[in-house]
Specification:
Blueprint: E1 3-8, H1 15-26, E2 30-32, H2 33-43, H3 46-57, H4 63-74, E3 82-86, H5 92-101, E4 105-111, H6 114-123, E5 124-127, E6 133-135, E7 149-150, H7 157-179, E8 184-188, H8 193-207
Helix pairs in contact: 1-8, 2-3, 4-5, 6-7
The chain binds adenosine monophosphate.
Residues 11, 33-34, 37, 54-55, 58-61, 66, 87-88, 90, 94, 154, 163 line the site of adenosine monophosphate.
C-alpha cells in the first residue's frame, strides 16, 4: 500500500530532520514545499521572484500558488509508492486540496513548545547544498556533504516570532481536522531526535 505521509509541526520542531530519516527508511520522495520555494528563489525563476519577499518576511505564499506547485509535484511518477509531505498543508484550504488529490493520509504531528523552538532556531543553520539542518555546531562546513552552512534569513528572532504566530493561528483548525481521523499520529518533539525517530518508525510500521 502506498504511504501518504504528512508531517505537521511548528518551524524548528525537528520536522525537517525527521522527514529525511522517514523518507530514507520508507524509500519515499521527501517533498518539502519550503525547500522547493527556496530553490526557486536561488535559481531566480519566475516563481522564485514571485515568492522571495514573502518567504524572507515570514509570511505564507498564496494557497493557489502552493496548490499548483503540490499538484504538479504529486503528479510525478516517483510518488507511486507514496510520499512524505513536509510543510504542506498549512491551511484548511490546502488540506481540502490534498484530500482531493490523495486518500489514506497518515498525518504525523511533531509537537514542541514555542520556548524550545526559539532556543533551537537561534542556533541552527542549514546546508546550502544538501539542505540538512545543523544545530549548535560552530563549523562552517556541512559534516555530510561539505557544503556551506548558512543561517536562514527567516531564522532571525523577529521573523521566527512571526512564523510561530502564523503557525499557531493556522495549525489549530488543521489539527482539529486531522486529529479526528484514524490516520493521525502524534509524537513528542521535545525528546531527543533519535527518540522521536524511534517513536515515528514504531507508529508508522504498525500502520503499514
Ligand atoms: P518552511 O521551510 O516549511 O518553514 O517554509 C519556508 C517558507 O516557505 C514559509 O515561511 C512560507 O513563506 C513558504 N511556504 C512553505 N510551504 C508553504 C505552504 N504550504 N503554504 C504557504 N507558504 C509556504
Amino acid at each position: 500500500m502506498a504511504l501518504h505521509i504528512v508531517l505537521i509541526g511548528p518551524p524548528g520542531s525537528g520536522k525537517g530532520t525527521q522527514a529525511v530519516r522517514l523518507a530514507r527508511r520508507y524509500r519515499l520522495p521527501h517533498i518539502s514545499t519550503g525547500d522547493i520555494l527556496r530553490q526557486a528563489v536561488r535559481d531566480d525563476t519566475p516563481l522564485g521572484r514571485e515568492v522571495a519577499a514573502t518567504i524572507a518576511g515570514g509570511g505564507l505564499v498564496s494557497d493557489e500558488l502552493i496548490a499548483n506547485l503540490v499538484s504538479d509535484r504529486l503528479a510525478r511518477a516517483d510518488t507511486a509508492p507514496g510520499f512524505l509531505l513536509d510543510g504542506f498543508p498549512r491551511t484548511l484550504t490546502q488540506a481540502h486540496l490534498l484530500d482531493r488529490l490523495r486518500s489514506d493520509l497518515l498525518v504525523v504531528h511533531i509537537a514542541a513548545s514555542n520556548e524550545e523552538i526559539v532556543k533551537r532556531l537561534s542556533s541552527r543553520r542549514i546546508c546550502q547544498s544538501c539542505s540538512l539542518t545543523q544545530s549548535g555546531s560552530q563549523a562552517d562546513d556541512c559534516p555530510y556533504c561539505g557544503g556551506l552552512l548558512i543561517r536562514r534569513e527567516d531564522d532571525e528572532p523577529e521573523t521566527v516570532r512571526k512564523r510561530l504566530a502564523t503557525y499557531a493561528a493556522l495549525a489549530e483548525p488543521l489539527l482539529a481536522l486531522y486529529s479526528a481521523r484514524p490516520g493521525y499520529i502524534a509524537v513528542n518533539g521535545l525528546q531527543s531526535p533519535d527518540q522521536v525517530t524511534a517513536d515515528l518508525f514504531a507508529a508508522l510500521d504498525a500502520r503499514r
